[in-house]
Design brief:
The chain has 442 residues and is of the alpha+beta class. It has helices spanning 2-6, 26-38, 63-68, 80-90, 96-99, 135-143, 195-199, 264-267, 271-280, 286-302, 348-364, 370-403, 407-422, 424-433; strands at 14-22, 44-47, 75-79, 102-104, 106-111, 117-121, 130-134, 151-153, 158-166, 169-176, 179-188, 204-206, 211-222, 233-238, 244-249, 255-263, 304-309, 314-318, 321-323, 327-328, 331-333, 339-340. It is built from 14 helices and 22 strands. The strands form four sheets. Strands 1, 2, 8, 9, 10, 11, 20 and 21 form an eight-stranded mixed β-sheet that branches. Strands 5, 6, 13, 14, 15, 16, 17 and 18 form an eight-stranded mixed β-sheet that branches. The structure holds flavin-adenine dinucleotide. Flavin-adenine dinucleotide binds next to α2, β3, β13 and α11.
Length: 442
Amino acid sequence: MLSLLYHGLQWGAVMEFDVICVGGGVVGSLFTALLGRRRPDLKIALLENKQLNASKKLESCDIDHFYALDKARRMSAINTGLLEEIQRQLAPQKTDFFDNACPMQAMQVFAQEGGSHFRLESPSKHQALAYTLSNDYLSALLKSYLCASTKIIDNVTIQAINRFDAQNSPKFKLNTTCGELTTQLLVGGDGINSYVRNCLHIEKKISTKPATAIGGIVYLKIDSPQLKASHDQAFQWFMRDGSVIGFLPDRQKDHFSFVWSLPSDYLNGSSEQQTHYQAFFNKEKGAENLSQFLFELIGVDYGIHALKVLSKPVSWPLNRFQAKSFIDTSAVLIGDAAHSLHPLAGQGLNLGLEDCFTLVELLGQSDFRPINLQAKLAAYNWQRQAASQRMSIICENLRSAFENKTWLAVLPRNIMFDVFDHSRFLQSIVSQQMSYKIPIHN
Ligand SMILES: Cc1cc2nc3c(=O)[nH]c(=O)nc-3n(C[C@H](O)[C@H](O)[C@H](O)COP(=O)(O)OP(=O)(O)OC[C@H]3O[C@@H](n4cnc5c(N)ncnc54)[C@H](O)[C@@H]3O)c2cc1C
């Protein structure tokens, strides 16, 4: 009841919107913030099932606060061009996005098998290759740029979604714990287990067998001439056993957010592997056991002086898929609701942010008549399916190339690493890819 009063809704009253976005993660928040600016004429609502404490939205996500938390926080590397575009569209006069982001000047990638390595540097000292930011912080920051007219409805559970026809225009009715809502366009930004996607019966194409990730915050001290290490770099190791260990730099010196992606057979593998896995989640000694294990895996070979897992290790399943369609009549999926990638290329969120720019650009040109709206959604589907497919193929090929241990795979892969390491031309192509340009629509 309190929640109803808070949102100003009454039993029986139906709130009508032009656009409802379900899911207030980074992608849903960016989408609603951009659309509100582009189309002030639309009535927009953002629905989030978690509670967003209005007075603590940003403070509770304060960078230092995270170190007090006994859980892994998810950090993402965001391509420089994308972050610049967010700032340009939402806050051209301010620097919030960059103030709290950690610039990543270079990334270094190692193949444990064969010992090859490459280093990709930012083309300019003044501009980073990418920026790392905590997902929670970024989504709270984006919400602070929502237009005043955009309604945030948090702490809400959707009980049913039904389609109905109103004057030849399809609409959705959402039964929620905060009352009944209707909308002309329903946007699913509600992550990998998307309720919207399930209600619309949109199937998923699963790209590979599931895997597991272990993550946390780590203190890493590297002192090796071979690595040219400094704290503004990301590191990634492709291990002999098919697992991938990635470290993203944090704002605090020598602190990194890490993700270790394990193939599913690790968990069902030898009893030694299973014992290790269980030891990482031991209440008292989990972090210590993991520190020691990771240090043995990579420290000795690569001149790592100290490696200490600072947070309690957390594990979560890695689901990789692409929705068979990103749209339905008057409905559209964005972000992880539409696609989820292997984290090894660090592109999942970037893909979701691009979804937002593309969709807002197309909706900006729509008069919202059903035929026109459907044509814009079809254009979105075509463009974003292709982009997601491309990225998924890159990630899966990389992953399987490193799982394959025959010399026929190892040799060409290592030669490619060396060629890439010495080719400024290839490196500049990849750096350019990390810079976002808004597609032009006719
Ligand atoms: C280990 C790991 C490392 C990664 N590293 C990177 C990286 O370096 N770079 C990168 O680009 N990407 C990275 N990613 C991917 C990135 O984290 C995700 O792509 C991104 O978080 C997706 O954002 P989203 O807003 O689409 O979904 P989410 O962050 O999952 O947000 C969904 C939101 O919807 C809400 N919600 C869910 N269900 C409902 C409902 N029924 N009603 C209302 N609200 C609901 C949730 O509470 C949540 O707030 C990584 C992913 C993993 C797993």
